[in-house]
Amino acid sequence: MKSIDLDSYCKQFTDKKIKSVIVLKGTELLGEWFDSGKDSIGPLYSCTKSILSALIGIAIDKQLISSVDQPITDFLEHPPEISDSLGKITIEHLLTMTPGFDWPDFDKPYKAFKAAEDPVQFVFKQPLISDPGMAFAYNSGGSHLLSVILTRATGRSALSFAKDYLFGPLGFQAARWMERAGVNEGGTGLYLYGKDLAKVGSLFVQNGCCEDRQLLSTGWVEESTRLHHRGLLQYEPPIYGGYGYHWWHSPESHNGQCDCFFAFGHGGQYLLAAPQHELVIVVRKQITKRNDAIWSRRLIFEHIIPACLGKTASE
Questions:
Q1: Is 286 helix (H, G, I), strand (E, B) or coil?
Q2: Where are any strands of DSSP class E within 240-301?
Q3: Dihedral Cα 23, 257, 224, 290, nearest 10 deg
Q4: DSSP secondary-structure letter at 208?
Q5: Over 50: is that where the pLDDT of 315 sits?
Q6: What three-state secondary structure class fits 20?
Q7: Is the preceding omega at residue 104 within 30 degrees of 0, hence cis?
Q8: Is 158 helix (H, G, I), strand (E, B) or coil?
Q9: Which of 72, 205, 230, 308 has the fewest CB atoms within 10 Å around its CB?
């Protein structure tokens, strides 16, 4: 796989408000570019969700959570009158964004959820309008429930758990994660250096192994990143994809280049992994309009991946 001269894209990066780009093959650096000249810590926005998914996997590997089939009512206090309905919702339903809550498109209840005195009960007050597992609705409230579940299962915040079992072993420089009442926000709020985010991608393309240490089971890597629901594969512009366990899934037929999965954050933040090629790409972008995230996607699929693989972009 070829190295890539990212400096040659400098004007394009600047015009499109790209802040940084990192490209790896496994753990080998193929190219990097930073608007400030060096890496810096910054917000992941909803890329946080994919990191949380990995932590859920580690908790399951360590038998702190029995499986993704465990009902959420095993961990969360809930109104008794809806206990039967909530008892049908599993951890897997939260991971695949299919619990069945009425949660309008593109996380519209998010601001009200953030302002709620009790975020868990706010989620539970939303009507259940479909059977669990049936309908996809992007729901940061459900992601927060996962963080609460992780905290209840491990007796520690997501950040504390991550420092011991993911961030520490991967050698992260630093990490910050917004929290309330001892629970880190599940849908967003994590701040990392770009190079540390890329290390998570490297871990996944290496089947959960880092320097001969298995941090995450191969089974979890495969199961969490495969397609579980069509999600937003039909959305235009094609910023998103299908959905796994808090990872987006994009087959070659969707993107024109290769099978891959990715973490995606508001405004065009990407951590993309293409295991077949051991390719890892991090793109961070200044927040502008929501659909401006297409510029990050085009950079990845029309320029970076073709340059690395010696292919011609088909889009």
A1: coil
A2: 242-243, 248-250, 260-265, 269-274, 279-285
A3: 80
A4: T
A5: no
A6: strand
A7: no
A8: helix
A9: 230
Encoding tokens for residue 282?
């991090």
pLDDT at 140: 98
Q: What is the mean pLDDT of residues 264-291?
A: 95
Helix, strand or coil for residue 127? coil
Tokens describing residue 38: 């060096």
**Which DSSP category does 16 fall into?**
T
Is residue 314 predicted with pLDDT exceeding 80? no
d(CA 210, CA 129): 42
The DSSP bridge partners found for residue 128 are 101
- 8 Å CB contact between 18 and 280: no
The answer to whether 139 touches 104, Cβ cutoff 8 Å, is no
Q: Which amino acid is at 183?
A: V
> Both tokens of residue 157?
């915040």
- Contact between 198 and 173 (Cβ < 8 Å): no
CB atoms within 10 A of CB 193: 20
Tell me the two tokens of residue 187.
């849908």
Residue with tokens 């366990």: 245
Mean pLDDT of the chain: 96
